[in-house]
Automatic annotation (TrEMBL):
Xref: SMART domains: DUF1900, WD40
Keywords associated with the record: Coiled coil, Repeat, WD repeat
WD repeats mapped onto the chain: 46-88
Protein's GO biological process: actin filament organization; cell migration
Region: Disordered, residue numbers: 289-308
InterPro entries given in the database record: Coronin (IPR015505), WD40/YVTN_repeat-like_dom_sf (IPR015943), WD40_repeat_CS (IPR019775), WD40_repeat_dom_sf (IPR036322), WD40_rpt (IPR001680)
Pfam families: WD40, WD40_4
Name of the protein in question: Coronin
UniProt GO molecular function: actin filament binding
Superkingdom of source: Eukaryota
Length: 350
């Protein structure tokens, strides 16, 4: 289960130690408060792959369990809370791993590979449960592009989004239990191709705007959000669009899952995230400026200089500004020291 204050970035912008032969996944913790300085050091570096890591995915129910897949055709499961390697799944893939996905409880995972095999794997038994299905239940021809497809499935709406790496479109389909199983919905197209794609968890969407999906499209030098919405005019919470969905709290500890225990994800309601339209309207109150009468007193020309505003008073003002600047700098240093101490307590190092 992904911690709400952590994100992943690699390769690192700056390494605290000599650079690795291949960039390793790193954990960067984003604090709940607004940081006063740039965050340059990761809290955990996961070293174990011999080639570049291209896939990472959090376990759906166990705390801090992460799976990574690299160009070495290797699957590694980590406990990022301790930085230790839990399991290594080797000799299962003879070629490059294209994608990895967990089932709902995290008891099994499925992989697609360049060797055109689909494998269902029990990671704790370290064995392939099923492989190379005979015939697909549905076949959908996309286009002639040879780019790798990045699938994102939303179980709440039964919609699968297909993003082609190097492509500039997102195609989405509804999945049903009856034939023909796959129903084409629409295509989102843009001018620039995507180098990668991220998917916002359901609990991060704006339910007031009937937002059902949000992607983060990776360009060469920027990350662009792409929002999918359902056009509805009702001001009520849309129960059919937002059933209870997996929340941020894990159902298991890493050790419990590794010992063989399974659990359903802990669900949360998105109703509290709904803000009725009438409460979100911008209200502007205009005052009649004629109601503010000017104070009575002698008039004077705007060009008349105040005799009291002389050079000594200006020097006093500048001196006060210098003193305030020194005070602010001292407080910034104190805040930075407190932040460092807080990070140590949070990481369990103090």
């Amino acid at each position: 289960m992904s911690p709400p204050t952590s994100i992943w970035l690699w390769p690192p912008e700056r390494a605290a130690s000599p650079p690795l032969a291949f960039p390793a996944p790193q954990v960067w913790q984003i604090p709940d408060y607004v940081p006063m300085r740039n965050i340059t050091e990761p809290i955990v570096t996961l070293e174990g792959h011999s080639k570049r890591v291209g896939i990472i995915t959090w376990h759906p129910t166990a705390r801090n369990v992460l799976l990574s897949a690299g160009g070495d055709n290797l699957l590694i499961l980590w406990n990022v809370g301790t930085g230790e390697m839990l399991l290594t799944l080797d000799d299962m893939h003879g070629d490059l791993i294209y994608n990895v996905c967990w089932n709902r409880t995290g008891s099994l995972l499925v992989t697609t590979c360049k060797d055109k095999h689909v494998r269902v794997i029990d990671p704790r038994k370290q064995q392939v449960v099923a492989e190379n299905f005979e015939e697909p239940i549905a076949l959908q021809e996309m286009d002639t592009s040879n780019g790798v497809l990045l699938p994102f499935y939303d179980p709440d709406s039964s919609i699968v989004y297909l993003c082609g790496k190097g492509d500039s479109s997102i195609r989405y389909f509804e999945i049903t239990a009856e034939a023909p199983y796959v129903h084409y919905l629409s295509t989102y197209s843009s001018k620039e191709p995507q180098r990668g794609m991220g998917f916002m968890p359901k609990r991060g969407l704006d339910v007031s705007k009937c937002e059902i999906a949000r992607f983060f499209k990776l360009h060469e030098r920027k990350c662009e959000p792409i929002v999918m919405t359902v056009p509805r005019k009702s001001d009520l919470f849309q129960d059919d669009l937002y059933p209870d969905t997996p929340g941020p709290e894990p159902a298991l500890e890493a050790a419990e899952w590794l010992a063989g225990k399974d659990a359903e994800p802990v669900l949360v309601s998105l109703r509290d995230g709904y803000v009725p339209l009438k409460n979100r309207e911008l209200k502007v109150t205009r005052k009649n400026i004629l109601d503010n009468k000017p104070p009575m007193g002698p008039r004077r020309s705007h060009s008349t200089c105040d005799a009291n505003f002389s050079r000594p008073s200006l020097e006093d003002l500048l001196e006060e500004i210098r003193s305030l600047r020194q005070t602010v700098q001292a407080q910034e240093k104190r805040i930075s020291d407190l932040e460092n101490k807080l990070c140590k307590f949070t990481n369990g190092t103090a």
